[in-house]
Amino acid sequence: MSAVEMCRTARLGGHVQQCRDCDTIRVAYNSCRNRHCPKCQGQASRDWLAARQADLLPVGYFHVVFTLPQQIAAIAFQNKSAVYTILFRAVAETLRKLAADPRHLGAEIGFIAVLHSWGQNLQYHPHIHCIVPGGGLSFDQSRWVACRQSFFLPVRVLSRLFRRLFLEQLKQAYDLGRLQFFGDIAGLTDPTAFNRIVKEARRIDWVVYAKPPFAGPRQVLAYLGRYTHRIAISNSRLVSIDGDRVAFRWKDYRTGGRQKVMTLDAHEFIRRFLLHTVPDGFHRIRHYGLLANGHRQLKLDQCRRFLGVPTPKSTAEEADIEPLPPLAHRCPCCGGAMSIIGAWSPLQPVRRPAWNDSS
After folding, report:
1. Residue 349 pLDDT > 60, yes or no?
2. Which NCBIfam families does the UniProt entry name for this protein (predicted)?
């Protein structure tokens, strides 16, 4: 919260920029670069999307969402690192196993998985969004295997396999003592109580949702831009701050996505926002299968060869021109490149001595 509060203020230092073309001067405060900050994700998202543009294939892309039920969400909240890891692993194994089955697709697929933990009202709602190309490589690496135009994999089968894989791994983590329980769920330290929760979760349907395919690669990029570096709430959704009350817009999907305004006490608003912080060092965006970092370029080149399309080149490379600077470093008047001509260091907070005044 302190990082968000100090972002782009004098407390973090700053710099003076001058346009190389029109000599416009601009004073800019430094960003906190915290991944939970609503001000700092724009440039990070643009840079990430620019790197992903060359990875897109000329095929339909599907959007699949895997959601944890409420009984398991309470466990996830108190064991974020352990349960989020299990969630990613179960989702990846589910998609890859079903896609590899000759009864469904019979191919090696690739996909991007993004962790979100919030609903529109900022309550805790852990789920993973997957962006999946509509097809994959045959296992003998000899051809591209396309799925049906408007159908990827059966949702009910995805849901049941995901549920089984997740609960098996959750039980294993519990048996190895990797889970902790506090407050309202402290009783789950008793194996009988924990097993009862697992049995209840096994009896209900887990929500897996497959949306219709995107219209094309540009729509995929636009969608990824909204989801990959998203945080619990952006500044654009804030309506007003009146005293100690905060109002924000949200979509109520129980009424068909109707937009409403919710007003919360400031402390409750901040509490809900902080529900969605991610453990230090934990990666919210992961690549699997054909898109895994270790062999992405090799696999994508194979896919393009079978699809009969050339390897894409960046627009700047094709035109043999210098690429434009990032938006944050462009002149607001003429769009030229800004150079830093001066800077000042962050203000150091006043620290009280560790010893007692009377000593």
Report:
1. no
2. transpos_IS91
